[in-house]
Design goal:
Elements lengths: L1 E19 L6 E21 L4 E5 L11 H9 L8 E7 L10 H13 L9 H8 L3 H6 L2 E5 L4 E4 L7 E6 L6 H8 L12 H5 L13 H7 L1 H12 L4 E4 L6 E5 L2 H11 L4 E5 L6
Parallel strand pairs: 3-4
Antiparallel strand pairs: 1-2, 2-4, 2-5, 5-6, 7-9, 7-10, 8-9
Helix pairs in contact: 1-2, 1-3, 2-3, 7-8
Amino acid sequence: MKTSLKAYAKINIGLRILGRRPSDGYHVLETIFQELDFSDKIYVKVNRSGHFTLDSNRKDIPLNESNLILKAVKAIKPWLPEDLGADIFVDKQIPPGAGLGGGSSDAAAILKFFRPLCHNKPPLESLALSLGADVPFFLTGGTSYATGIGEELKSISIPLDWIVVLVMPPFSISTKQAYMDLRISLTDTVKKTNIPSFLRRGFDWRFFENDFERVIIPAYPQIGVIKSALLEAGAEFSALSGSGSTVYGIFCSDDKARSCITRLQDYGHIVLCQPRGLT
């Protein structure tokens, strides 16, 4: 029997780079991860071959062991029966390199699917972290305040009565290059904002900004054009998600959100979606 899974996208509401860890050079950040109802679909057909295959509707993504889906399979395989295998097909709707966490979400969906089939309880959180800093978030989804390298998570509550317009330009942005362009040294430190404390005083979109924008917009001027176009179309807030390339707009009116689609269609693929709370 074939099982269908959904691997949901996320946006970053604000993203501050606080410095780098002297121990390994990883960047320390502060952000809010917000899950969306926009998703990849993954189809899994379990068999007893002991082998795992991967296919996709997109041929511009790797289908070998460099794909996070097969990395997730490899991570959890020691806890699975030796003869268990599966044919996996991913219907990719979330573009790679878009700042929406598509690959990480796919990996988390696979870990969650195979967990009940394991002999013993696998250490899911540590397996997720071994695959990527934002994979642990997708194990639970919803809304989380993230610190550390993105793996220190605290579930928070914010108003979710808004609509998201995602504008995905026809190019991706290298996260590694974006971090290099920020030129943050091991001695640079920025004081943490403590977003949960701030939110207790009320939610204000004007508080949030994405540090990557100061290097991404000069390098990719179209990002700035899209951001301005969303605000002119009536968005309450607009920002780059992660290191891009997706720019999103937050709308409080469904009519305004839908009316901006035709105005922005020349900038890239557009998706209208909503935030997801914990389920």
